[in-house]
Write a sequence for this structure.
């Protein structure tokens, strides 16, 4: 269904539609600012008055803010979701109960290890399957009593395909002066960029309690990938607004490539550390948008594309490394000192300009005078 939006006002739009999918007929006025009812009060499909929108204009939370949730995470090399009973027991890396959506004081740390599947060692992607449900509800999507209004499932990759790290040869100048370096081996010529699969052992899973009603059709792609729409495709009476599940932000913003492990046949078991917390919506928007852009640049660099200004996508990586590895107090003092240094440089330049503007003659500024004063300094 093609929709043509015309700016009539902030809350009213004109949508042209037809039953065969082509634009035809008179425009239909749609009030996109209409109040979205609670999920329990949603209308029946026969009671929807307007044309059905495949992509909702606005979405509201499907669960209340004080709901308690259960969460399980399984790791697998397949996107297919089998019954939970068919997952190997060691693939369950997280099993947390009674996570209250808006409980800001509830933070949890989970540390575990798991075996890398054989196909992941051969460049298959490692996936994390997230199963979320209201406490006491069925988590298994294949079960007969599974309720889409009380549970949902989504996946996220735990590995990334990036340009292979460049190995830098270094030598200890204090203790290895007389060590003879081996002759460099002849390198094979490659027609394209070297790409490898990398894994990071840490990630943060943040629950976003305060997102509220979202204009889904207008949000950034980096944010949209974390928004889980209600699975049945229900709409309000206008046919244009829907609902979404609690937002769980799979936060990899602070993952550095220098801390990643390249997966190959020699890597059979890896650690996993998960930090579970809550995060405000504005922080989520900023970090998700920046992380999406960084990953896009990394993917382009791995594919051999040239980024604007000759960048290789590693500039933000260096900034994050400075923020993580530096003492915050020392970093703050350096920033303040740099500001004062810039200010003093400006005042000195301003003073020089003022001096030369007020000078009426060139006495004392000749090259001979400057050299004479330099050779015979005053006592």
């Amino acid at each position: 269904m093609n929709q043509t939006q015309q700016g009539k006002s902030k809350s009213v739009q004109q949508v042209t539609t037809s039953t065969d999918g082509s634009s035809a007929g008179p425009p239909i006025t749609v009030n996109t600012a209409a109040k979205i009812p609670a999920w329990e009060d949603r209308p029946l499909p026969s009671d929807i008055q307007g044309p059905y929108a495949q992509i909702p204009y606005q979405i509201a939370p499907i669960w209340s803010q004080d709901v308690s949730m259960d969460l399980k995470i399984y790791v697998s090399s397949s996107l297919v979701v089998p019954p939970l009973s068919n997952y190997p027991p060691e693939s369950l890396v997280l099993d947390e109960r009674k996570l209250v959506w808006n409980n800001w004081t509830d933070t949890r740390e989970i540390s575990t290890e798991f075996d890398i599947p054989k196909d992941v060692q051969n460049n298959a992607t490692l996936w994390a399957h997230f199963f979320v449900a209201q406490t006491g509800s069925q988590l298994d999507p294949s079960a007969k009593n599974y309720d889409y209004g009380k549970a949902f499932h989504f996946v996220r990759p735990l590995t990334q395909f990036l340009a292979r790290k460049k190995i830098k040869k270094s030598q200890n100048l204090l203790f290895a002066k007389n060590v003879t370096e081996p002759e460099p081996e002849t390198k094979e010529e490659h027609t394209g960029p070297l790409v490898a699969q990398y894994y990071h052992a840490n990630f943060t899973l943040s629950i976003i309690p305060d997102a509220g009603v979202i204009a889904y059709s207008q949000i950034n792609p980096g944010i949209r990938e974390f928004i889980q729409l209600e699975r049945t495709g229900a709409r309000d009476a206008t046919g244009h607004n829907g609902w979404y599940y609690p937002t769980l932000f799979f936060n990899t913003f602070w993952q550095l490539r220098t801390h990643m492990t390249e997966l190959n046949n020699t890597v059979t078991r890896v650690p996993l550390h998960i930090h579970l917390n809550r995060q405000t919506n504005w922080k989520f928007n900023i970090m998700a948008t920046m992380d999406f852009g960084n990953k896009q640049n990394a993917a382009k660099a791995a594919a051999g594309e040239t980024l604007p200004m000759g960048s290789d996508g590693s500039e933000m990586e260096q900034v994050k490394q400075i923020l993580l590895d530096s003492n915050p107090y020392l970093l703050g003092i350096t920033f303040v000192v740099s500001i004062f240094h810039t200010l003093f440089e400006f005042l000195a330049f301003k003073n020089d300009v003022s001096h030369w503007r007020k000078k009426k003659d060139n006495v004392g500024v000749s090259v001979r005078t400057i050299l004479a004063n330099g050779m015979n300094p005053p006592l």
Observations:
- The longest strand covers residues 269-278.
- The two ends are 91 Å apart (CA to CA).
- Helices lie at 118-121, 221-224, 281-302, 315-325, 328-358, 367-375.
